[in-house]
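In this supplementary section we document a worked example of the pipeline. Step one takes a protein sequence of length 536 as its only input; no multiple sequence alignment statistics are reported here. Step two produces a three-dimensional model, which step three serialises into C-alpha cells for compact storage. The input and output of this example are shown verbatim.
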Amino acid sequence: MKKVAIIGAGPTGIYTFFSLLKNEIPVSVSLYEQAREAGIGMPYSDEENSRMMLANIASIEIPPIFTTYIDWLRSQSEQHLARYGVEYSSLHVRQFLPRILLGEYFRDQFLELVTQAKKQGFAVEVHESCQVTDLQATEEGVRLWAQGEAVPNLFDLAVIATGHVWPDEDASTHTYFPSPWSGLMEAQIPASKIGIMGTSLSGLDAAMAVVIQHGEFIEHDGEHCRFNLDEKSAALNIVLMSRSGILPEADFYCPIPYEPLAVVTEQVIKNEIAAGSDGLLDRVFSLMIEEIEQADPAWSERISLNTLDADSFANAWFADRKQNNPFSWAKSNLVEVERNKRDKRTVLWRYAILRLHEAVQEIVPHLNEEDSKRFDAGLARVFIDNYAAIPSQSIRRLLALREAGIISILTLGQDYELDVKEHQTVIAAQGNRYEFDVFIDARGQKALKTKDLPFPTLRQQLQAIGDDIPDVGHDYTLLEPACARGHIGFGALPYLMHDQPFVQGLTVCAEIGAAIAKAISKPAHRPRRKLMFWDE
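The serialised model returned by step three reads:
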C-alpha cells in the first residue's frame, strides 16, 4: 500500500483526498493540519472570519464532494441557519452565504471522506494542530518532519496543499495589521480613524470586521440594509483606499456552466503560442476583439472596441467608474445586476470577458518580458476586476456604512508612500498627508517564490538547482530535483500564481486535487508549461 501525505486539509487537500478515493486503489493517507480542526481551511474557519464575511462563490459553482452545498444546506435545521442570518425558505443555488457556513460544509464532507476511505480499505491518519516543519525529496520517497514526531516519516507522495499564506500574527501590532487574517478577527479595534489598503472584497471584509464591533446591520427583505452605530463609537471613521479608488462590480447573472467561446478556443490559443512569443499578446488581443464583437456588437461599438489595443482596453473598461462617484456608481450597478438576476438576463460583454480570462491565461508564461509587463498593467486588471465581482449583499452593507457617514474612499494615484510608525500609519499621496490610528493592509495574496517555502530542506534543494519558483508538471508534481518527480504534489496556490495569475477558487482546488491524485500511479514527466518570472 503506497503512502500519501497531504499537508493542509483545506479545500485543495480535501479535493485531493476525494480524488484518491475515486481512483479506487487503497493507499495509506496521512493528513496534516496545523489548525485545530481539519477539513475547513483558513478562508472558511470561524477563527479567521466573522459571520459578516460572505463567500464569493455560490453552490452552483462549488464542485460537490458527497453532496452539493445546496443539498447540505437544505439538510440543516432552520434554527441552525438562522444563527448565520440565513432564511431556510430563501435558499437557492446562486446565493452567497457566510464563509463560516461553507466551512461547516467542508468539515462535514471531510469527516465523511475519512469514514468512506476506511470503508474502501484506505488507511487514514488525521493529525490536527500539527505543523509539518520540513520536507526532503529522496530517491526512496519524501521524508516528512512534523511537530511531535521524533523521526521523519517516509511517503511515496507528499502533497503540499497549504493554501493562502499571510504574515504571522506576530507581525501585527495594535495599530497595524499586515493582512485581515493576521490577528484582526481577535483584536479590539477602537472607534478611531481606520485606514484600509484595498477596495476589493478583502478590503470590504476588513471594514466589516471593524464595524461590527461598533454597531449592527439591520437587514430585511434581502434588499434593504442600514447600519446603526453605537453612540459611544461616534469617532469611528474608515477610509478604503487604492491607486484607482474604484469599487468592484456586484456579482452578475450568467449561464453556469460556461458556454464555450466561439473564437478564442483552446486550439487557437495553442496555435498562437506555437507561433512564438513576439507579438503574442497583440495577436491574442485581436482574437479577443473578434470574440467580444460577436458576443455584444452594441457594446463593442459604444466603446469603439476596434480602436483599442491591449494597453488601452483597460482604460475603456474602467472609464465609467473613474468618471463617477464610487458610491453612486456602486448603487446604480447594484440596481442593474439585481434587475438582471430577477430577469435572468446576461450582459454579454461581461460574460465574454469572464470566459476569456481562463483561455487567455494560457499565454502568460510564453509572453516576452515587455509584453508580460503590458499584460499585468492592462488586461490582467480587467480580467481580475471581472471575475472578482462581489456579492450584492457586500455592496448593500458598504452603501449602508456610507449612508451612516462612517466610510469613504481615497484615490491614491500611482505614486504614494506608506510609513508604518509605532502608533500610527501615514500615507503620503498627491501632495497630501493622511494619518491613521489603525491600518489594515487588505491587498490580497501575493505570488510566492521558492525562497518563501516553509520547508527548509526542500527549499534548499530547489534553490540548489536554480529554481526561483517551483517547476511543476501537468499533474502539479515537482519536476526538479529529479528525485522529486512524481513524489511531491505542489498544490499551494500562491506558488502557482506566476504563470497562472488568475488561479483562484474552489473549482481550481478541485482541478488541482484531481490532477495530483493521478500522480500516485502515473507521474508526469513534462512541464505543465514554461515558467517565467519577471522581477518587478
